[in-house]
Amino acid sequence: MQYLVSVINDTADLxxxxxxxxxxxxNDRLAAEDHWVFAGGLxxxxxxxxxxxxxxxxxxxxxxxxxxxxxxxxxxxxxxxxLDVVLKLAAEGSKxxxxxxxxxxxxxx
Amino acid sequence: xxxxxxxxxxxxxxxxEAAAEAFATAVQRWPADGVPPNPGAWLxxxxxxxxxxxxxHENKRDxxxxxxxxxxxxxxPEPPGAIDDERLRLIFTCCHPAxxxxxxxxxxxxxxxxxxxxxxxRAFLVQETAMGQRITRAKxxxxxxxxxxxxxxxxxxxxxxxGVLAVLFLVFNEGYLATGPGTDPVRHDLTAEAIxxxxxxxxxxxxxxxVAGLLALxxxxxARRTARVSAxxxxxxxxxxxxxxxxxxxxxxxxxxxxERLAARVAPGRYQILAAISAVHTSARDVRDTDWxxxxxxxxxxxxxxxxxxxxxxxxxxxxxxxxxxxxxxxVNRLEDKLAGYHPYHAARADLxxxxxxxxxxxAAYDQAIELAGNTAEIASLTRxxxxxxxxx
Lengths: 109, 393
Description:
The structure holds two protein chains of two kinds.
Chain A (H helix, E strand, L loop, with lengths): L1 E8 L7 H16 L3 E6 L7 E4 L6 E4 L8 E9 L3 H15 L2 E6 L4
Antiparallel strand pairs in A: 1-5, 1-6, 2-5, 3-4
Chain B lengths: L1 H8 L2 H22 L5 H21 L5 H7 L8 H15 L6 H12 L4 H8 L3 H17 L12 H20 L11 H17 L4 H14 L25 H17 L5 H14 L8 H14 L3 H15 L1 H9 L2 H4 L3 H13 L3 H14 L3 H17 L1
Helix pairs in contact in B: 1-2, 2-3, 5-6, 6-7, 6-8, 6-9, 7-8, 9-10, 9-11, 10-11, 11-12, 11-13, 12-13, 13-14, 14-15, 15-16, 16-18, 18-19, 19-20
């Protein structure tokens, strides 16, 4: 079972050196315990581009699809047997990166 | 058929799909193979197989098919422990912290205690369709996010159990003062279920003070159940009850638990304080023997822990016995802003005003209480008290 653990913040400020070090330790642990699938940081919403090609004539819009006070600044994809396990990991992840996180399941394989 | 499958498999989606698949198989096979001698039994057996296949298929990686087999009641009778374990697992799933509190209570009432959707909707004062959607969404989340179906490990148990106790207390209260117009005023099935589940939790955590406190509170309340509704179907207040009909065995067990907690010398939580209050009441052979100063002292302790208006209201009712109705009424009146929609507030005011001889104000307060109350026996009792006012004037 895989879960998307999104990192939520109200600024796109990069992680501090301290936060980065804690994230590295946490990521090593994820890998060592077989929870690691993928992770990454994202550019700020202002760097986003929305494409709508449903009509066949791709419409390109500058900016994110929705303006919100808080947004996703990065994410993990974690492997875990159930929600209890991933909630504990997410709590540690939130502490490591010093930001809120949201856990969402991927739909069944 | 779906209900029977639901009881067996505890998953409405699986039940519905298995039933549909069984019918589809029948449509395919019967024209070619002929209709079986007992079509109903054939459909039930086929649907059960489909359901088990599906659960096995979905859960083959983590061995959950064992659970499905446990629930499949064509198997030999289970040892008594297995059903209890089943219920414990179900309750920890329904009371999972990833679900909103209201959802946990609703799910537990539906899945563990077996209440109907209208009963749950009524208990929450929401529309039936909204309650249906909430439960459907919760079931989808349990499944999609894979909320586990198990009792938490020993290290996680303390953090998870307080949420379970809150749910069990609400189930008990719904049983003790049922809100539905079409149900018995006291639903023994619910109070008994809540007590049974609390006992299971206590077996799991015998050292936990609040678990013991909640169990004691339920037992001491349940002990008064038969004295609580009169032959004519009216709710009987604590001071009017025939104390000879109280259940001595339940009271003894409740008192034993309260003493056990006192001996532990650990600061009590709210259930332990509420149980201690109940122990004071049930220790008095006659209402006039009640140690009201002890009751008020315990409420003072509770207010420090839980400064909610409902606790303040109950404290004020006890104060009436110690310092008189005038003092109590002043305290009750201060709660108007917060409790205007809560019928016990109006009922308490009505009783205090009656004792102070203010008939007209009392009548108006009874009217409001009757309008807001949902329990049939309580409405009957409030109505009689209101109507007796008329004769006195």
